[in-house]
Amino acid sequence: MALVREVAAEMHPGRPLPADAGADSLLDRDFALDSLGRLELAGRIEDAFGVSLTEARIANAETPRDLMAAVGGAANRVETKSPAGATAPPAASKPGMREAARRVAAGLAAEGLRPGEVVALMLPTGIDYFAAFFGVLYAGGVPVPIYPPPRISLISDHIRRHFSILANCRARGLIAGPEMASVATLLKGGVEAIDWVSTVEALGQGTDVPPLPAVSAGDIAFIQYTSGSTGQPKGVVLSHDNLLANVRAMGRALRATGDDVFVSWLPLYHDMGLIGAWFGSLYHGVELVIMSPLRFLARPERWLKAVHRFGGTLSASPNFGFEACVKRISDDTLDGLDLSSLRVVCNGAEPVSPATIERFVERFGPCGFKRTAMFPVYGLAECSVGLAFPPLDRGPRIDHVDRQVLSRDGEARPVDAGDETAQPVVGCGLALPGHLMRVVDALGHDLPERHEGRLQFQGPSTTAGYFRNAEATADLIDGPWRNSGDRAYLADGEVFITGRAKDMIIRAGRNIYPQELEDAVGDIEGVRKGNVAVFASADPASGTERLVVLAETRRFDAATEERITRAVEAHAVDLTGQPPDDVVLARPNTVLKTSSGKVRRAACREAYEKGLLGKEGAPPWLQVLRLSLMTLVPTLRRGSKAVLASLYAAYFGAVTALLAPPAWGLIAILPQPLAWSLARSACRLIFGLTGIGVKVDGRDRLPPPGDQVVYVANHGSYLDGFVLALVLRRPVAFVAKRELLGHWVPRILLSKLGCLFVERFDREKGLEDARHLVEEARAGRALMFFPEGTFTNRPGIMPFQMGAFTAAAEAGAPVVPIAIRGTRRILVDGSWFPRHGRIRAAIGAPINPDETADGTWRQALALRAAARTHILTHAGEPDMAMDRAALLDHTPGEVSDSPK
């Protein structure tokens, strides 16, 4: 309790605590500790008690008693000091990243994940994130990073935002940390598409590793949802080609090599940490030292000490991270700190403050930090992450322009830094190699340098659009160009960002940019720096926009409120030429922000217009109750679907049980032609009664009865044979494995239908069976092969064996390929739970052996290639023969292409 009171007193000097403040008082309301305050408190608790608190314990603690419980259940911490350049000891008993990812992929395959399906990742920064992300890729899925929940008091806003993300991407599953189980359950309940929720540990128990998917450059690598600082989050679709182009271009601009060391505290669920730090380091062979964002927020010096310890040469942070180091690192912490190894520290992801740059360089220059290492950059998710980098070794370029001319005329007219009208703007560099930038006016016409307008870009890193959001995609794309959503001007080819287009306020013919006014208001005594929002709100009476300033403060006595309000008005007049229409002073945590700390001005405006600002949020239990009720309808809908699916499966089983035995008995006693006709009629009746439609394309391509022909089809389910019985109007001889003769039910049925059985394990007998198949084909008997030889529950066309094609080549018979689509989904391998669906069969044109080819073997190879091309084109499943792992996993018989 002494530590709690100590931190509260430091944050709010002279502010008395409530008389009854104790172990069960709220940290935010009673002790006025914000997120950074509680992290500072947690750091002191760790030092005082010699323990290490988990991120979840810190984030979810609401009272001092919660922190006491965390200390009681925490592990003792052992910290050792290491010299600069020392490396961390290798983790024991943990599998390597590749092996861990393959285990996760096996777990995903066991969950039934299909190629192209989406899996959301709600994980903290750590080793599990690496395994989960690559595990989804290994399984052929599409990862979607989402940020973990904040503390429980803010759970409602978090859940609502994630509902929209998960519904938009149609996530099939959600991988979450074990401490997030309750939140994950709420999300699953509210999003109908989610079938399962799991952890990395649970998925990592899988052993049946799926074959690597066949991937092309244009396939989706992952979907990055924008933070939504100006509206609802949008899913940026990024291909493998986009990502590789971006990490190559950034590495070239930084001259990254294997000698570099990247020290990062950036969260992996944001593009700057995921692509810039992780993917970039992975691609260029850079050693990556990664730490939890919460560890940095609790003690910013940990970032700089990690640079010292590991000899970091590269790093990155949003502007607030540099500001935190300036304000919160004490002088005694700087003793012995050496930052001279740093050659580049990127400053991006949010507006770059000229004042912060100068303060950081001045404060840490004595520690060896070079001004040339400060690297303001510009990027956005729609360009993967990076778009513009400044020249190396130049240092930051700060332009000073006439504020009034820029606001009134849109011209960035240079002035002296000491001029009273000077507005500093930071240069964020030149377009990355292979990329272009331009500034256009409202009509889309190019503007000359030093004229402000809409910033557009193009290049190999740019997204093709937003996932399932045609309207937003249309706003993004302008021919070959993409709209950044930012306003800027170019000078000597370098981009200078002036603000977000949607945040700009037009008042009395002048452009007002919120950022500069927010920074100025944040410096007023009593206002919480970084917790100010400036936005426009429509005035219903006049039909014009009103300028509103929302600022957080902890002091609400009349004199202080009056002083702050007058100071806000004065700053507004100095910067915009006119006072604000409304100044709202609110309690901490009123200004809404994204997970990366950006002010959500649009959301603040909405709350202001609805009269919700300043109102105390509902208690956590009520928020959870409301969210639980919200999930009731999707849960009931999902449950009703499950009930209907079970009823359908039971109905399917009843129809089959009713019709199959008498059909089998009649087939067993009828002559073969009648048995075949009866089998076709029984299949048609079962499919008709169960509502499974079978559409056949290309039936006119079937050879007439009596012609030599070898049919081949892909094999995904036990239903394939029934489908082919409907598709093929003439009796055919299915080629089946000889083991089926050992079971009397299939033996009698298949024998009466004219099946041919082949040996798969005895080589001599197998060759004899192969010669027999050739004789049957020459005699004009139609043969039906499944050249994959077997099927599994994994989507994909496995390698084709040569039996069918050598038989066709030696007999001089044409091959007719048939692509079957939909059966695997209706009845998957390993399950007797049929689902309703539609089946489609595409019959290809007969493929004749090439008589000019050198021998029957080459004829057979050509037949196989042509048949496989048709089946891959129409079956709607990936080509597993392109993956070496699939070839190794696939072990059919010597000559048999028999069905399972």
The biggest beta sheet reads: 7 strands, mixed
Total strand count, please?
A: 34
Distance between the termini: 69 Å
Which CATH C-level class of the domain at 693-889 is it? Alpha Beta
Contiguous uncertain segments of 5+ residues: 77-92, 883-900
Kindly identify the CATH topology of the domain at 693-889: Glycerol-3-phosphate (1)-acyltransferase
Mean pLDDT across every amino acid position = 84
Radius of gyration: 33 Å
Write out the CATH superfamily name of the domain at 693-889.
Glycerol-3-phosphate (1)-acyltransferase
Oligomeric state of the chains in view: single chain
Count of helices? 30
Write down the overall geometry. elongated
User: Could you tell me the strand content as a percent range?
Assistant: 15-25%
Structural class: alpha/beta
- What is the CATH architecture term of the domain at 693-889? 3-Layer(aba) Sandwich
Main sheet strand line-up: 28-34-33-29-32-30-31
The percentage helix is 25-40%
List the helices and strands and how they pair.
Blueprint: H1 2-11, H2 35-49, E1 51-52, H3 55-60, H4 64-72, E2 75-76, H5 97-110, E3 118-122, H6 127-138, E4 142-145, H7 155-169, E5 173-176, H8 181-190, E6 196-198, H9 200-203, E7 220-225, E8 235-239, H10 240-254, E9 261-264, H11 271-284, E10 287-290, H12 293-298, H13 301-310, E11 314-317, H14 319-328, E12 344-347, H15 354-364, E13 374-376, E14 388-389, E15 398-402, H16 403-409, E16 422-426, E17 430-431, E18 436-440, E19 453-458, H17 470-476, E20 477-478, E21 481-491, E22 494-500, E23 505-507, E24 510-512, H18 514-522, E25 527-538, E26 545-553, H19 558-576, E27 582-586, H20 601-609, H21 620-630, H22 632-669, H23 672-689, E28 693-697, E29 710-713, H24 720-727, E30 733-737, H25 744-752, E31 756-758, H26 763-778, E32 783-785, H27 803-811, E33 815-821, H28 823-826, E34 838-843, H29 855-875, H30 884-889
Parallel strand pairs: 3-4, 3-5, 5-6, 9-10, 9-11, 11-12, 12-13, 26-27, 28-34, 29-32, 29-33, 30-31, 30-32
Antiparallel strand pairs: 1-2, 7-8, 14-17, 15-16, 18-19, 19-21, 20-21, 21-22, 23-24, 25-26, 33-34
